[in-house]
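#lab-general

N.A. 3:47 PM
ok so I finally got the sequence cleaned up, no stray characters, all 99 residues accounted for. can someone with queue access submit it? mine expired

B.Y. 3:52 PM
send it over

N.A. 3:53 PM
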Amino acid sequence: MIRSIVLAATVIALAAAAPASAAEMRVKVAGKSAAEVRAEIVKAASTVCWQDIRGEALAGYMYPACIRASVNDAVAKINNPALSAYNTANPASGAVVSR
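B.Y. 4:20 PM
back already:
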């Protein structure tokens, strides 16, 4: 019973962790490789997501999901085939990045 409650709470948290916040950061992409651009996007997503969810009861569950969703959304908006391929090959782990 407790396991299903935790799973339900996690699903709700994941839905709430989507990158729908008002916080934004710009990442300069000119002259950078796909790996460099993605690293910058992950760093920015980490900062924005932490600002959005810190203090939340389920922040530990929400943070990785927020990073993944934010990175995938940013990569899709850039619409660069090399970056998209690199992102697919190296999915965002949601690990804590220096904030």
